Amino acid sequence: MNLQDYRGVWVFIEQKNGAIAPVSLELLGAGRKLADKRGVPLAGILIGDGVRPLAADVIACGADNVYLYDDPIFHHYRTESFMRAVIEACQKHKPEIFLFGATSTGKDLASAVATDLATGLTADTTQLDVDAETGLLEASRPAFGGNIMATILCKKDRPQMATVRPKVMKRLAPDLKRKGEIVEEAVSVREEDLRTKVLEIVRDTTQRVRIDEADVIVAGGKGLGGPDGFELIHRLAATLGASVGASRDAVEAGWIEHHHQVGQTGVTVTPKIYFAIGISGAIQHLVGMQNSGLIIAINKDPAAPIFGSCHYGIVGDAFVIVPLLIEAFQKALQ
Ligand code: FAD
Predict the structure, then answer these.
(1) Is 299 annotated as a binding residue?
(2) Closest to 277 measured CA to CA, from 252, 308, 245, 248
(3) Nearest Cα to Cα of residue 107 among 12, 208, 210, 7
(4) Does the annotation list 280 as a binding residue?
(5) Is 62 in the pocket of ligand 1 (CB under 6 A)?
(6) What ipTM was estimated for this complex?
(7) Residue 210 has what pLDDT?
(8) How many whole angstroms from 270 Cα to the centroid of ligand 1?
């Protein structure tokens, strides 16, 4: 492989129901910096059915060009069809760096593409940089339970691929005057070649909170003692109009569903305010919330590790303090 043949930074533009996923716009912001440092173009690859109108947003948010695959075969996301388009595009245009959101779709697609192209993929990246001279992507992510940051290089293969966690990179303010080129690509993939058919989409109608998008999160842990104790968390959250988060131990005890879990094996959150109540502050929890704007911890153990990672700490019994807070906030918000 001649590495010099590969040029440019690409972002996979994830879209659903006519809207671009926020993480893709964040990656255009991050990709712009990498491309400028290298002096190469930034491109978005946009795949879907009827998605052409979104190409202008991709350019407004930082891309120099958009490779567009607009065809009914891409109506629903399927690994097979999308990976064929992405692989053909990579073989034709040879990007040096290729970024995907670390979403279910992004992770699924990036791993399939990296395997087929036999190149390196760094998963769940939280920091990106590039060596302007060598073009080596420096993709960093927490490792060993968040105790160290590992910077991973892909020295011998191209493209250098990474999935990046949502809400970590900063998107650029859209500039509607930015000019870019939309490159329409033909698809070689045909419906009869695909083994997967989407027969029906069944939506989950249970009310799912997106805690990764919340401004205020009230999170509870094992210290709440049981489902009745955990009710206090719901009451404080309702008072503040906040979302509810939880430690893994609270989830495993069955007090709350898994999609509320914050941490290494849960969701990474960056709210403006994060309450950690009856949560000890294990590293696997901290990696999921330590970038919150303001962290307020309530724990009866003054030696709990959470006090080493919070802005304000209240040492005391949650069953005494949380009702007082609810009362005070209710009065203040009347
Ligand atoms: P505990 O550690 O039991 O802490 C309870 C705290 O409540 C204590 O500090 C105690 O002092 C306090 N307390 C008790 N009673 C009261 C009271 N009345 N008032 C106030 N405070 C009180 N954990 C996660 O959270 N998220 C993850 O994604 C995650 N992923 C993991 C992945 C791996 C591979 C592993 C090995 C572990 C993972 N864990 C995760 C588990 C993690 O290591 C901890 O076990 C877990 O976070 C502890 O949950 P906790 O803080 O609720 O419980």
Answers:
(1) yes
(2) 245
(3) 12
(4) yes
(5) no
(6) 0.99
(7) 77
(8) 19
